[in-house]
């Protein structure tokens, strides 16, 4: 009878050792993906506010948990974002007489493709685009008149200070290399010389 429990104890002990070794093997196999997952989560949690990453690397919605102090106060007071109800909005209203009107008329039907040029107009939708005009180069010619007095002395009109060289760009545009050359040799005939 004693042999039976001893044999059973040995079998249980062998099974226990087998289970322990399998358990240790499984733990080591799980440890590698767990470390990899922690590394990935750490990398994903970085953004421009808590690391040296640029703002362009921030993913959409990543900083949704960070809220500006003003927004927190407004939310605590129950205020919604945007303009307050009842106040007039500010916008760029359409002009009654625009500088240019461009007609966008379809040539053929969007459904069947047949020619609809000259067909009756059902409705018109308008949109206006406000653009700043393209800068243009303006040329202003300054002439210095010379007058002779009754004594015979010739006196010339004085050019404004910035117009004393032959060809000159304004101070905002910088000095033209040709005008720099002209100002270096003022006695030579060249650009801007009427003589």
UniProtKB/TrEMBL annotation:
Coiled coil: none annotated. Residues 41-98 are annotated as: Disordered. InterPro entries: DUF6444. It comes from the Bacteria. Residues 4-91 form the DUF6444 domain. Residues 71-80 have a biased composition (Basic residues). Residues 46-68 have a biased composition (Polar residues). This is DUF6444 domain-containing protein. It comes from Ferrithrix thermotolerans DSM 19514.
């Amino acid at each position: 009878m004693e042999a039976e429990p001893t044999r059973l104890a040995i079998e249980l002990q062998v099974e226990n050792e087998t289970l322990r070794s399998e358990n240790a093997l499984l733990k080591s196999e799980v440890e590698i993906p767990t470390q990899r997952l922690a590394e990935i989560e750490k990398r994903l949690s970085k953004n421009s506010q808590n690391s040296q990453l640029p703002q362009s690397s921030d993913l959409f919605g990543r900083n949704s948990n960070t809220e500006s102090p003003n927004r927190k106060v407004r939310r605590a007071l129950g205020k919604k974002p945007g303009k307050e109800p009842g106040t007039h909005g500010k916008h760029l209203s359409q002009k009654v007489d625009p500088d240019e009107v461009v007609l966008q008329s379809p040539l053929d039907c969007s459904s069947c493709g047949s020619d609809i040029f000259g067909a009756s107009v059902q409705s018109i939708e308008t949109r206006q685009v406000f653009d700043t005009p393209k800068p243009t180069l303006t040329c202003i010619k300054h002439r210095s008149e010379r007058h002779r007095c009754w004594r015979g002395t010739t006196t010339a009109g004085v050019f404004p200070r910035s117009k004393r060289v032959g060809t000159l760009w304004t101070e905002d545009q910088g000095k033209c290399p040709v005008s720099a050359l002209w100002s270096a040799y003022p006695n030579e005939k060249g650009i801007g010389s009427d003589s």
